[in-house]
From TrEMBL:
It comes from the Bacteria. This is MarR family transcriptional regulator. InterPro entries: WH-like_DNA-bd_sf, WH_DNA-bd_sf. It comes from Streptomyces palmae.
Length: 152
């Protein structure tokens, strides 16, 4: 691969810029691909929380709390959950637990497959070792600057 700068120049580049540029590229690509399925990225997050290994269902608070743990969502998921219910992708039972529907399960399966394709696209020509090193270095940057990060 051809890089944008020589190693001597690149080592002086600001990490903040490159992490922002990577974030923007990944999120823009992901959101565009999900939009082709009629989903926003926050809707995908909600579906993933409802459909992945939660047979007893999840409450709105559980979904929001889990996502708040590693995404900057604040309290803004109510509208996304309402939208998923209105679309018929999720239903809420009398105990106020969210469950999947056949329509939602079909969409979730398509979106999950798309996420696997996007993962492979992002990781093309990147070894597991390189990826692991990148994440460990980013975690050290976070720690060195007094930040916190967690992902489930």
């Amino acid at each position: 691969m051809e890089y944008s700068h020589s190693d001597a120049e690149l080592v002086r580049q600001p990490i903040g810029y490159w992490t922002w540029a990577a974030y923007k590229a990944v999120v823009t690509r992901t959101r565009g691909a999900l939009a082709e399925l009629g989903l926003s990225q926050p809707q995908w997050w909600v579906l993933h929380q409802v459909y992945s290994a939660h047979e007893e269902g999840r409450t709105r608070a559980e979904v929001t709390q889990t996502l708040r743990g590693y995404l900057d969502v604040g309290d803004g998921l109510g509208a996304e959950i309402d939208g998923a219910v209105a679309q018929g992708w999720v239903e809420e039972d009398s105990a106020q637990r969210l469950h999947g529907t056949p329509e939602g399960a079909a969409l979730y399966a398509k979106a999950a497959e798309l996420q696997h394709e996007l993962w492979a696209e992002r990781h093309a020509d990147i070894s597991d070792e390189e990826y692991l090193t990148t994440l460990k270095v980013l975690q050290r940057f976070i720690r060195n600057t007094g930040g916190t990060a967690w992902h489930h």
